[in-house]
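Input chain follows. Return structure tokens only.
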Amino acid sequence: MQNEEQLIIIGNGFDLNNGLKSSFQDFFVWLNDNNNIEKETVWSKNFWNSFFEKAQLSDPTWFDVEKQIGEVVEYLQTEFEKDEYSNPTYTGAFGLEQSSLHHHIVEKSHKICLPKEDGTLATIKDNILPLIVTNRNNKFFSTVDDIMNFLFSELNILENFLNEYLSQEVNSNQEYAEITENKLLSLAKLGVSRNDYKVKVLTFNYTPIQVYNKLQSLSVVVKNVHGELTPVDKGKSNLILGIDQSLLSNDDNLKFSIIEFTKTYRTLFLKKDVSIDRGSFINKNIKVVKFYGHSLGSADYSYFQSIFDELDIYNQEVYLFFYYSNYDDVDRGSEQYERVYKLMAEYGQSMSNSSQGKNLLHKMQLENRISIIPIK
């Protein structure tokens, strides 16, 4: 039984609980601080900044960056499939060849900005094309790829700022490394009566986890799913903000560079150390899976689906533990139960055997293989 492993999956709640100001809300406070003129100038002209400002007016979850990226991507997939964008050029004044696409988005943007007949204003999604036009930084779009590449470069700017902010937070928190190590040790001991499980940590955070003496005793292996902090003086970061592959309407027939926004596509560029000798990080040896500090949001469903598929959680004796912590003097239990229910229901729908998918959660409950537990 010495080869058996447990997998600990952590998200931003883990860092927050360890005293790091790593929420997007904290990040935006720093980002919109006008003490740095150069930073403020670059960010004020950014498409995503303008979109977040619009979203903030009506969406209480506006700071959920990856959700907002998904809103934009889903809208543009539908919008750019329309016939009006199919002809790349047209003959304009004086017989000059001009961009049909640019003409359409400018013309449509002006119409959207006007109040409708019933006096209602544009929705958040209606604002996407006008914001592209007003924040294009004098760029001229000849193709849809031009637009998507522009939005992607604007996203890279946001990622670089996030890398800078989190690096400052980690460097200024001298106790972070030790607190992180102790918290992982505590998580590794929860819910198991044995101490010989090898421990794998799958972190959706960008912050580093140092394996010191305490963690080395548990044979801990850490994997950062979406990149890790890069020293600011090294230039461009490798952090990934993006969408789940499932948001693509039909990725086999995409006619433009929207696939660059998916986490799956971008993580390919981080896999520079793949070796057949190292084996799979996720394998059948994993018998215990623990979640902590992860929102279980739809942006990461593809990862969870792959893990559950590989472990065959319906048929195999695999135990799932969903841990959470209360904060702001509020019991977060009901919120966590809802998230777990949605995750398991979503996974059940993806199973090839629909009848098994429908009773997955019920089966795991009867077999005492799923638990939702509060911890400090």
